[in-house]
Amino acid sequence: MLNIIIFGAPGSGKGTQSDRIVEKFGVNHISTGDVLRAEIKKETELGKTAQEYTSQGQLIPDALMVSILAKVFDGFKDSKGVIFDGFPRTIAQAEALKNMLAERGQMVSVMFDLEVPEDELMIRLIKRGKESGRADDNEETIKKRLNVYHSQTTPLIDWYKKKGIYQHINGKGTIDEITSEIGEIIKNIL
Ligand code: AMP
What is the annotated signal peptide range for this record (predicted)? Predict the structure, then answer.
């Protein structure tokens, strides 16, 4: 099974590229942000908890996030592969993902890091907020999310570099250029 992590700051294009990879390679997509937004919309207990954190631009606690992830992942048992979008976001989540996959005889195949300059991220996220109405795409929350990304999530770059599965991608290229760069790397893995 192909287990792909798509990594990058909020607004780096993880969702867009995930959709393309799903189409090209027939893998399943797990976006933890989408899972949480669906729960918030349904007003479940989990949704209420998630809302408290997401509205502040903070991360959902690791233990809760890991249990949600495992449940969703086990729903894709006979899948060709999975693309993890928005997970892991902390070292603890990366450790948990490694263990969860190992328990199932699997491992992460590759981690793509979409790097986009900060000023470009701000522009993209403010635009997305206006177009989609996503509650956390307002200037104040965006700044908090970018701070959280720098302090809690970027340490994963070195973590995956050490595992030898890190792939840097220039996230400022066109959507098509980025898809084909990612696609070539996946083809080589296959
Ligand atoms: P995203 O759509 O991936 O930008 O996620 C939106 C929000 O959901 C984040 O700002 C977090 O509050 C929460 N979230 C999504 N994925 C995770 C995760 N792996 N760990 C903790 N919180 C998460």
Answer: none
Q: Which residues have CB under 6 Å of ligand 1?
A: 10, 32-33, 36, 53-54, 57-60, 65, 86-87, 89, 93, 136, 145
As a residue count, the chain comes to: 190
In the annotation, is 124 catalytic?
no
**Torsion-angle region of 94 (φ positive above 0: left; ψ -120 to 50: alpha; else: beta):** alpha
CA 181 to chain centre: 18
37 catalytic per annotation: no
Compute and round to an integer the Cα radius of gyration of the chain.
16
Question: Domain total for the chain?
Answer: 1
Q: Which atom of ligand 1 lies closest to the CA of 85?
A: 3
DSSP 128-155: HHHHH--TT-SHHHHHHHHHHIIIIITH
Please give the model's pTM, rounded to 2 decimal places: 0.97
C-alpha closest to that of 32 among 59, 2, 57: 59
CATH number for position 135: 3.40.50.300
Range of the domain at 177: 2-189
Cα 58 to averaged position of ligand 1 atoms, centre (Å): 8
